[in-house]
Amino acid sequence: MNTVLTQSLKRYGWKVIALVVFLVLQYQLWFDQSGLLANWKMQSLIEQRKESNAEFQAKNQVLTEEIIALRSGMDSLEAKARKELGMIKSGETYFIVVEGQD
């Protein structure tokens, strides 16, 4: 009886061990922190960050151009003050045109 059990273990034991090893490796491949699912999620996050970085770079470029324009001369500074702050030069006349309600 004992020999039948040892023969059975020798015959089928390696299959059980191989199956367990296979299942552990499959788990690591798919569900581990460095597995395929985590990799796909990380790729998606990287794409989102690239898009937001591109938007920020565009905004930074606009601000950089505005800084260069402001440093280059008083004309751009004066135009900005007129547009955003409603400032006028001394001696100028400022008119407000109000459209009538119909």
UniProtKB/TrEMBL annotation:
Record gene name: ftsB
This protein's record includes keyword Transmembrane helix: yes
Keywords: Cell cycle, Cell division, Cell inner membrane, Cell membrane, Coiled coil, Membrane, Transmembrane, Transmembrane helix
Gene Ontology biological-process annotations: FtsZ-dependent cytokinesis
Subcellular location, record wording: Cell inner membrane
InterPro entries the UniProt entry points to: Cell_div_FtsB, FtsL/DivIC
UniProt protein name: Cell division protein FtsB
A Pfam short name: DivIC
Cytoplasmic side: 1-13
Residues annotated as transmembrane: 12-31
Subunit structure: Part of a complex composed of FtsB, FtsL and FtsQ.
Membrane-protein topology: Single-pass type II membrane protein
Coiled-coil annotated spans: 46-80
